[in-house]
Design a protein that fits this description.
seven-stranded mixed β-sheet, phosphoprotein, 24 strands, ER, Enoyl reductase (ER) domain-containing protein
């Protein structure tokens, strides 16, 4: 075959492959979870991950048990890697999925008087595609029992965007004409309802025959094709050459420029699309000679003080409830990949909603890898611990709760980074002892373990980071140079294991630093790669015996 690396064993024939190790998954139950996007880009992967138990809500916060959440194009842009980091409010928002959800209030923080546990609610928040969400009362609405959670989740972003764009910014008035692009989407359908309620005339566009037929079934008189630029001349014909008063735009490129030219004197252009913004596309200024206004609308950036007015306006729009019947397509959480694909290819009408119902298809949750539980009364020995990977490992152990660390290197306290490493560990709350010992010398290692035992801090873990590099092609290396590279890793690991066993140490950690070169090779590091292969074999042997080990 084309394979050039093959291992033949008594058991089977093997070839090397590197794959992400899947985390264990279990059915959703009481475990909190959230949706995460791995490997953003064209080959993105969606996974439901276990999350920590939700903390009690703080002041002006409400904890909600989420029953449905809606997707937006912003979520798709994150998944495919088109949303720049600067477009996100903070790192938490950049890593989250979902902006709106509906559910039941579990708890209210201090100062919250509008809601109580048990209330059915809908609202906007980051990381809405999750089992639990923290929300702000100003961005929430109470639901009546007649409204389903899926129905409700489809409304907040769409209705808020329309109220902010057409109400706050464009100040749409009765008798005016508004051009709504992408009118079969969630925002578009809410815009058609809003404009109709305000007594405005609607001209709509959509990208498929199915969507245009749907809009006509709602009573929209003028429905045009958004996939060609012919809509511009058609709008002029419909308006008798006058153009429109307001454009609610989601088209990019030339279609956006043509739409800007359709505004009559005093017109207002409300831009909802983000791609041209993030690509910093230029905007032609000639249309602005007609006293027109251009607004970039993003409801996620709306100041908090605007929401009370928007809530009141939305109440009027929805006939006194906090819900607009935006058509939607619902997917159980287990089929979230299908939901993303539908939205990504714009094959939907209205909104795409994710539901979290115990009666839906079983949902598998990836467990969070649990950090090691370290014994604060025991000692943890780190070879090569006075600098480099060893020092970093010692600090990591201290952060995990280790309170007694023994750092071993041939130079001991004379090592250049020893003092700085000890000081850093002291800041993390750990007591440090530094030992000068050759890890390949059994007597020296036994002496270090005896010191730890005498101090009443028995050995509980070993992290082996000692190493020696001597990069050269194999033909240039002498036996002596090869042995010098092999010894710290191979002999050191064997000595550590044997000495710990002789001392009767019960180890909860046996960590061996290997290398990515062990899998792919390195033409000038043959002994180093060989030493790491030994460490991985040692870890496998220990695991087979039921002992702690990780390479």
């Amino acid at each position: 075959s084309d394979e050039d690396e093959i291992v033949l064993t008594a058991a089977d024939r093997f070839v090397p492959r590197e794959r992400p190790r899947p985390e264990p998954a279990r059915p959703a139950g009481a475990t909190p979870y959230a949706l995460r996007v791995r490997h953003p880009g064209l080959s993105y992967e969606l996974v439901w991950e276990e999350t920590p138990a939700p903390a009690p809500p703080g002041p002006d916060e409400v904890l909600v048990d989420v029953r449905a959440s809606a997707l937006n194009y912003r979520d798709i842009m994150k998944a495919v890697g088109l949303l720049p980091v600067e477009a996100c409010v903070d790192a938490a928002e950049a890593a989250s999925v979902g902006l709106e959800c509906a559910g039941v209030v579990l708890a209210c923080g201090p100062g919250v008087t509008d809601f109580a546990p048990g209330d059915r609610v809908v609202g906007m928040t980051y990381s809405a595609c999750a089992s639990h969400a923290l929300m702000q009362p100003a961005k929430m609405w109470r639901l009546s029992d007649s409204v389903s959670f899926a129905e409700a989740a489809a409304a907040p972003i769409a209705v808020s965007t329309v109220q902010y764009g057409l109400g706050e910014l464009a100040r749409l008035r009765p008798g005016e004409t508004v051009l709504v692009h992408g009118a079969a989407g969630g925002v578009g359908l809410a815009a058609v309802a809003y404009a109709t309620l305000k007594g405005a005339r609607v001209i709509a566009t959509a990208g498929s025959d199915l969507k245009r037929t749907f809009l006509r079934s709602l009573g929209v008189e003028h429905v045009l094709d958004s996939r060609t630029l012919d809509f511009a001349e058609q709008v002029r014909a419909i308006t008798g050459g006058q153009g429109v008063d307001v454009v609610l735009n989601s088209l990019a490129g030339e279609a956006m420029a043509r739409s800007l030219e359709l505004l009559r004197s005093g017109g207002r252009f409300v831009e909802l699309g983000k791609r041209d913004f993030y690509e910093n596309k230029p905007l032609l200024l000639r249309p602005f000679t007609k006293n027109i206004s251009y607004f970039g609308a993003d409801v996620s950036q709306v100041p908090d003080h605007c929401f009370p007015r928007m809530r009141a306006e939305m109440g009027d729009l929805t006939g006194g409830s906090a819900h607009v019947k935006v058509p939607h397509t619902a997917f159980p959480a287990a089929r979230v990949a299908e939901a993303f694909a539908l939205l990504q290819h714009s094959r939907h009408i209205g909104k795409v909603v994710i539901t979290y119902d115990p009666l839906d298809e079983p949902l598998l949750i990836e467990e969070r890898p649990a950090p090691p539980r370290l014994d604060p009364e025991g000692s943890y020995l780190v070879t090569g611990g006075t600098g480099g990977f060893g020092a970093a490992t010692a600090c990591w152990l201290a952060e995990l709760g280790a309170r007694h660390l023994a750092l071993v290197s041939r130079s001991g306290e004379r090592a250049p980074e020893a003092a700085a490493t000890a000081a850093r560990l002291a800041e993390l709350g750990a007591r440090v002892s530094v030992h000068a010992a050759d890890v390949t010398d059994p007597r020296a290692v036994r002496a270090v373990l005896a010191e730890l035992e005498a101090a009443g801090r028995p050995l509980r873990g070993i992290a082996h980071a000692a190493m020696h590099l001597d990069d050269a092609t194999l033909s240039e290396l002498s036996e002596e140079r090869i042995r010098a590279t092999l010894a710290p890793k191979m002999a050191g690991a064997q000595v550590l294991e044997s000495a710990a066993a002789e001392a009767g140490a019960e180890l909860d950690l046996f960590l061996l630093h290997s290398s990515g070169t062990t899998l792919i090779g390195n033409i000038k590091q043959a002994p180093y790669v060989g030493a790491n292969l030994y460490l991985e074999a040692l870890a496998r042997r220990r695991r087979q015996r039921g002992e702690a080990a990780l390479a």
